[in-house]
Specification:
339 residues, mainly alpha, 2 helices, 86% helix, flat, disordered N terminus, disordered C terminus
Length: 339
């Protein structure tokens, strides 16, 4: 057996690579999938951009406003009403009414239960316990002994003899017969059904299934890879088309508008501001000042000049004690101290 085991070697793995079937399937599948995927990707990118714009400009502010309105008009009033009209009265009722009543009912039920329990034991449990202990149990033990003796000698001993003398030899014979029939049937089934089916599976169905699975695997893998590759290519094409359309729109609309604003409207606005608006404002301000002066001159001519306010009398500065020029007892500035 050793030389046979040495000759049976495990076949080496094939080198990884792509066969002719993979190469033949990949290119047409990718072309067809690319033609089918590019319009879908363009529509998808357009809808995604539109959805982001709508969400950013409309749905998000609308949702925030609706949430604020719901919270302000529904949640806050309902919460206040619930706390004021439901929680507070129910709490007062529970504390003031239900708790004392529940405690009284619990105390009453507890006392009633204790009394009924004692009464039930006295009327039902204790008499039955005495009847069982002193009457039924001794009678039952005697009856059990009699029944056990009768069952042993009327049932067990005859059944044991019947099993040992009749049923055991008969069972051995039936077992031998069934075992022989089972061996014959097993041999027939093996050579008529099992061996042909195993050969059919091993030499026909399994190789065909492996080949079919390999073909299906290659086709499915290439279709999936083609979808992924074409989806990425369609994304690149979609971005290129979007950039081209953006550039076209920019040079057709944005840049002309910007050029007109920068080269025409801005100098025109500056000219209007410096040549018309500022002189008009200066003229209006001058006219207002002229009207104001004319009104003042007319009022002076009709009613005279307004009276000038009298200047307040000058208050001599308060001299500090000890300052030069103040009167002291040693000076001769008073009449009592003059010579």
């Amino acid at each position: 057996m050793e030389p046979m085991d040495k000759d049976r070697r495990v076949p080496e793995r094939y080198e990884p690579g792509e066969g002719c079937l993979t190469t033949a399937v990949r290119l047409p599948v990718r072309i067809v999938v690319l033609v089918l995927v590019v319009p879908v990707r363009l529509v998808w990118d357009a809808l995604a951009a539109l959805g982001r714009a709508v969400h950013r400009t409309a749905l998000r502010p609308l949702g925030g406003g609706l949430a604020w309105l719901w919270h302000s008009l529904v949640v806050i009033p309902v919460a206040w009403t619930y706390r004021t009209l439901v929680v507070a009265p129910l709490g007062w009722v529970r504390r003031s009414v239900l708790t004392p009543v529940g405690r009284g009912i619990a105390w009453l039920v507890r006392g009633l239960g204790v009394g009924l329990l004692w009464l039930g034991k006295a009327l039902f449990v204790w008499p039955w316990v005495a009847l069982w202990r002193y009457v039924l149990a001794p009678v039952g033990r005697g009856v059990a002994v009699v029944v056990a003796w009768l069952v042993r000698y009327l049932v067990v001993v005859p059944a044991r003899w019947l099993y040992a003398s009749v049923l055991t030899p008969l069972g051995h014979g039936i077992t031998w017969l069934v075992r022989g029939l089972g061996t014959v049937l097993t041999t027939l089934v093996r050579w008529i059904l099992v061996v042909p089916l195993v050969a059919l599976w091993r030499y026909v169905l399994r190789p065909a299934g492996r080949a079919l699975a390999a073909v299906v695997t290659v086709v499915v893998r290439e279709v999936g890879a083609a979808f992924g590759h074409c989806w990425r290519v369609a994304g690149i094409i979609s971005r290129a088309i979007g950039r081209f359309l953006g550039t076209v729109l920019r040079w057709l609309f944005v840049e002309p508008v910007r050029w007109v604003y920068r080269t025409v409207l801005t100098p025109l606005g500056h000219g209007i501001r410096n040549g018309i608006w500022r002189p008009a404002r200066q003229a209006l301000r001058t006219a207002r000042e002229t009207v104001r002066q004319t009104r003042r001159e007319l009022r002076r001519a009709l009613f005279g000049a307004p009276r000038e306010p009298q200047p307040a009398a000058a208050v001599p500065p308060r001299r500090e004690p000890g300052a030069p020029g103040t009167r002291t007892l040693g000076s001769s500035t008073t009449a009592l101290t003059k010579d």
